[in-house]
């Protein structure tokens, strides 16, 4: 790196995902903006036992703006503030090691940072538009509106970014790591303080599907107890309305837990659940007294029935193909 401070630090905490990290880095280094002094990539290896270091060193041999460090032991969530602390950029963007950067994604982020560098509001790259979010970009001016638009996606590390000075004034850099939502805790604190933010819905990234994604940290505890617990604190100090909190809780069930309940039901190989956590029992008990509970049960059963029908049809088609091949 030269003497110029980078405008953007792409901060990647990683652990035993060499194959995914390789593809992520490949999507970064092919973008022309990466080769300018405005960008650096910072990787903190959480004591990986695979060939992560070898792969990163190969990139380092070609590019001067890739910084790599390796922890002597797995420090779990603490690796998030560690990788941000190792960065030098004015804006430090936390990224999963599974993210594939779309073409021009870096240029778009640089433009967004430059547009907001004077006022330095919260910049949150949601990467997900849907029927609830019809705009590509939301300029929000209240804690309530920020959470209602971003919803449980505040728990996604790929959306989180922080200005250099906002990170530097954090007294205890590791506070909140035990929640497995360090970045969410910091984000909510910053929104509560600044009240202004930009939520960007443009799809800048693709996410690689991870085989046997590890959910043994306790999916229900982290997202129901910890995430909603963080949000509820702001209801008590009247930054978040009761109606918005109820909306967040409902949205969590229909747009997040539903997916994992179906996965839990069919034991998909793509997830590794905790043997001590009965996802179905915990989730259904938590929502049993809500007015939309029966409708959710209907929706869940409909999804399960549809999957069974698809499997039945697929098996019948396979049988017919095998049968007709005999003639």
What gyration radius follows from the Cα positions, in whole Å?
Answer: 22 Å
Instruction: Return the CATH class of the largest domain.
Output: Alpha Beta
Number of helices: 11
User: Which homologous superfamily in CATH is the superfamily of the largest domain?
Assistant: Spore Coat Polysaccharide Biosynthesis Protein SpsA, Chain A
Largest sheet: 5 strands, mixed
Q: Would you identify the regions where 5 or more consecutive residues have pLDDT less than 50? A: none
Estimate what percentage of residues fall within beta strands: 15-25%
CATH architecture descriptor text of the largest domain? Alpha-Beta Complex
Helix content: 40-55%
Average per-residue pLDDT, rounded, comes to: 92
Number of domains: 2
Spatial gap, N to C terminus: 68 Å
Q: What strand line-up does the widest sheet have?
A: 3-2-1-4-8
Q: What's the number of extended β-strand segments? A: 12
H/E series: EHEHEHEEHEEHEHHEEEHHEHH
Throw out a few tags for this protein.
alpha/beta, five-stranded mixed sheet, 2 domains, 11 helices, 327 residues, three-stranded mixed sheet, globular, 46% helix, Spore Coat Polysaccharide Biosynthesis Protein SpsA, Chain A
Give your account of this protein's structure.
The protein is α/β, with parallel strands linked by helices. The protein has 2 domains: 8-210, Spore Coat Polysaccharide Biosynthesis Protein SpsA, Chain A, CATH 3.90.550.10; 223-322, no CATH class. Helix content is 46%, strand content 15%. It contains 11 helices and 12 strands. The chain has helices at 18-29, 52-60, 79-85, 105-115, 143-150, 164-168, 182-194, 219-236, 242-266, 279-287, 293-324, and strands at 8-14, 39-45, 66-70, 91-94, 99-101, 122-125, 137-140, 161-163, 197-200, 205-207, 213-215, 271-273. The strands form 4 sheets. A 5-stranded mixed β-sheet has the order 3-2-1-4-8, with helices on both faces. A 3-stranded mixed β-sheet has the order 6-9-7, covered by helices on one side. A two-stranded antiparallel sheet has the order 5-10. Helix 2 links the parallel strand 2 and strand 3 (66-70). It is globular, with a radius of gyration of 22 Å. The mean pLDDT is 92.
